[in-house]
Design a protein that fits this description.
Its EC number is 3.4.16.-. This protein is α/β, with parallel strands linked by helices. It contains 18 helices and 13 strands. The longest helix is centred in the N-terminal third of the chain and has 14 residues, at about 30-45.
């Protein structure tokens, strides 16, 4: 494999790397790359490096459906701000999730064998023109900068509406709810099909303040800035001093390049919109985990709680569908407080049988960027180090278990949503009464298939007038697995 050859060449330049522990880490689509690279290293008779641990953050380990679409309801449970705390809208998405087979039941320990295969989302709608348009957007959005441009375009469309159209926004929102309430129960939306993430983000961009005048950041829900704060690293990486220090070739660095998977970026028969025809890593994770255990290589999986695109539920499904240490999935639900150096709880940590899982509070898709100090602690203690916090030891768990962290989601309903242009100008937080009412509702709404009532209810957030804004209903094409953060820590 090319990566193994690269490592062999790297060791020729830095001979000491041949004997030092090698840590392979990455985020996003590295959830595909890292398992394949690890598999190649394991299959090499005399690998050039001594692999010690792999770490995958917010990674695309499952199918496209299992990575991007399956977590929509979990995201709404975590951030009801996206739908303005509207209980009827939540029930609608809950029903659609059930119809798509996304409402998998995570049990600890795992019961009843493996989960069934998920639907190919591209086969759930007859609106192929919209899907093709969506696919084009996904292909373009493999570049983060272009993704930001596409993200910003959707909410801007309402700016050109006439005054009369502006006056009809509330009516259109009400009509949207009447449409879903009038549809027979058990009916999948013919336009979106099982593209629930796209429908959720479209709803926010058209109905929920501040996304109606900002932009929905799929990687960090509280960020509604439009445009976002620039994060382009090209200035640093194209500095000649940096190139020299890294022994990098004298070529201009770019965030991405076209056709990373050969000559095609068409949707594959299996439903990969990037043209990647390789089998998703979740299909061989049990084999990989077994080989990792045999070789003493640890597996670390971590998630940011504010990531909507590659959210925690998808990662937890992969874990519970994987056999490691002779047992399928974790035997106990992750609920040990992950604490920083000052003793503050900053997330959840859990370890069983050579697999570590962490959930970071107040972090998006790019955990080190969102919470750098906490990310450093995690790197120090759980990737490079061997902290036992969260380790299941017989009937005990090191660090204990917090019942408040045992839910299927980590609530962020009190989180502020920030908006502005290029920098934060203001933020919005839901009233305490709204949050209390939502929590009362959601406590009993987690099970069963909901029935959508006909009576519409308005938004109850702190900016309800703006939440009524609407610019129609279309697939936005915001989704992307573009972010590849591939790091080798030595």
């Amino acid at each position: 494999m090319a990566m193994v050859r690269f490592l062999a060449n790297l060791v020729k330049v830095f001979p000491s790397l041949a004997t030092r522990p090698f840590h392979l880490t990455g985020e996003s689509y590295a959830g595909v790359y890292i398992p394949y690279i690890t598999k190649a290293i394991f299959s090499t008779p005399n690998p050039p490096v001594k692999l010690a641990r792999i770490a995958i953050g917010d990674g695309s380990m499952g199918s496209f459906t299992g990575t991007e679409e399956i977590s929509t309801v979990n995201t709404l449970q975590t951030f009801p701000q996206i739908i303005g705390f509207d209980t009827e809208v939540f029930q609608y998405f809950q029903e659609q999730s059930h119809l798509c087979g996304y409402d998998l039941n995570l049990t600890y320990p795992k019961k009843n064998g493996h989960f069934p295969s998920l639907v190919n989302v591209f086969k759930t709608t007859t609106h192929f023109d919209a899907i093709l348009s969506l696919n084009q957007a996904r292909k373009i959005s493999f570049d983060l900068n272009l993704r930001a441009t596409l993200t910003n375009q959707l909410p801007k469309r309402h700016v050109m509406l006439s005054e009369r159209e502006l006056a009809l926004r509330e009516d259109k929102r009400t009509q949207w709810k009447r449409d879903i309430s009038g549809r027979p129960n058990g009916t999948l939306d013919p336009f979106y099909g099982c593209f629930l993430w796209e429908e959720m983000t479209d709803y926010a961009a058209n109905f929920t303040f501040p996304w109606t005048q900002g932009a929905f950041d799929p990687y960090d829900i509280p960020d509604a800035l439009n445009p976002e704060v620039p994060t382009d690293p090209s200035v640093f990486l194209n500095d000649e001093r940096v190139r020299t220090a890294l022994h990098a070739p004298d070529k201009r660095w770019g965030a991405s390049f076209p056709f990373p998977f050969g000559n095609s970026t068409d949707i594959t028969p299996a439903g990969n919109p990037f043209g990647d025809r390789s089998v998703e890593p979740s299909a061989f994770m049990s084999e990989l985990a077994s080989n990792a255990t045999e070789r003493g290589v640890g597996i670390v999986i971590y998630e940011g709680n504010s990531d909507s695109l590659v959210a925690r539920f998808g990662a937890e499904v992969v874990i519970q569908n994987t056999t490691f240490g002779g047992i399928q999935g974790f035997t106990r639900r992750p609920s040990t407080p992950f604490k920083d150096d000052n003793g503050n709880t900053v997330g959840i940590i859990h370890q069983e049988r050579n697999v570590t899982y962490a959930l970071f509070e107040n972090a998006g898709h790019f955990v080190p960027r969102s919470v750098p100090e906490v990310a450093f602690i995690f790197l120090r203690d759980f990737i490079l180090g061997n902290s036992t916090s969260g380790l299941v030891n017989g009937s005990n768990v090191v660090g204990g278990e917090d019942p408040a962290l045992m839910g299927a989601y980590l609530p962020a309903d009190t989180a502020a949503i920030f908006y502005g242009s290029g920098s934060t100008v203001a933020s919005t937080v839901a009233p305490s009464e709204t949050i209390a009412a939502w929590r009362s509702f959601i406590a009993t709404a987690g099970t069963g298939v909901p029935q959508i009532s006909a009576a519409p209810t308005g938004p109850t957030g702190s900016n309800s007038a703006e939440a009524l804004e609407n610019a129609g209903k279309w697939i936005s094409g915001l989704a992307t697995l573009a972010s590849i953060m591939f790091t080798m820590i030595i």
